[in-house]
């Protein structure tokens, strides 16, 4: 749940202010996942070894493979864009969509639908491109919306630093605790940075893409909106549970 520093609530994005772009991105990612082989729900991809081969081909076709991206193939420049709508498994999808659901609504409301859509796609594209540039020799496919969602988190930190976020921490027995958004997001960035330093070339979470996306989102909000757009008092809150993060390489 997110609330503003003033503590005042109203029905989430009631009326014409509903975050339709955020909803559309969530629905698109979920639909693409369900129809693809990673969900295991489409019988057309078969099962067992046949399904695993289909998943591998699917991720290579629609995800970012750094070695292929820099190969000069004219189709490859679109890969960082299509990869934003592909997810490796159910946990990857649900974690990303919950993050987008929580932080995307207020960010979209402040930016406007069209600007938010361009911001989301551009930040996600550049985050995946940055990861591919840093791992140019990698043949692992990279998929997921985490780079774009990290950009949303960066923008949210600048625009709503005093909003309060209800978070669940496993090491505190999942007790719901409320913290300022700036504290939660800076803690999240620190975890991504530490994990990125320990990451290797094996399949896993692309923490570097998270850091690139977050930095770009924060800088964009800072340059585009300045101090006048920051919320310190009353604002329009949104409610949801705290999500997870991840940019997976299947």
Automatic annotation (TrEMBL):
<feature type="transmembrane region" description="Helical">
    <location>
        <begin position="139"/>
        <end position="160"/>
    </location>
</feature>
<keyword id="KW-0378">Hydrolase</keyword>
<feature type="transmembrane region" description="Helical">
    <location>
        <begin position="114"/>
        <end position="133"/>
    </location>
</feature>
<dbReference type="GO" id="GO:0006508">
    <property type="term" value="P:proteolysis"/>
</dbReference>
<dbReference type="Pfam" id="PF01694">
    <property type="entry name" value="Rhomboid"/>
</dbReference>
<feature type="transmembrane region" description="Helical">
    <location>
        <begin position="205"/>
        <end position="223"/>
    </location>
</feature>
<dbReference type="InterPro" id="IPR035952">
    <property type="entry name" value="Rhomboid-like_sf"/>
</dbReference>
<feature type="transmembrane region" description="Helical">
    <location>
        <begin position="172"/>
        <end position="193"/>
    </location>
</feature>
<keyword id="KW-1133">Transmembrane helix</keyword>
<keyword id="KW-0997">Cell inner membrane</keyword>
<feature type="transmembrane region" description="Helical">
    <location>
        <begin position="78"/>
        <end position="102"/>
    </location>
</feature>
<feature type="domain" description="Peptidase S54 rhomboid">
    <location>
        <begin position="81"/>
        <end position="225"/>
    </location>
</feature>
<keyword id="KW-0472">Membrane</keyword>
<protein>
    <submittedName>
        <fullName>Rhomboid family intramembrane serine protease</fullName>
        <ecNumber>3.4.21.-</ecNumber>
    </submittedName>
</protein>
<dbReference type="InterPro" id="IPR022764">
    <property type="entry name" value="Peptidase_S54_rhomboid_dom"/>
</dbReference>
<keyword id="KW-0812">Transmembrane</keyword>
<keyword id="KW-1003">Cell membrane</keyword>
<dbReference type="GO" id="GO:0008233">
    <property type="term" value="F:peptidase activity"/>
</dbReference>
<keyword id="KW-0645">Protease</keyword>
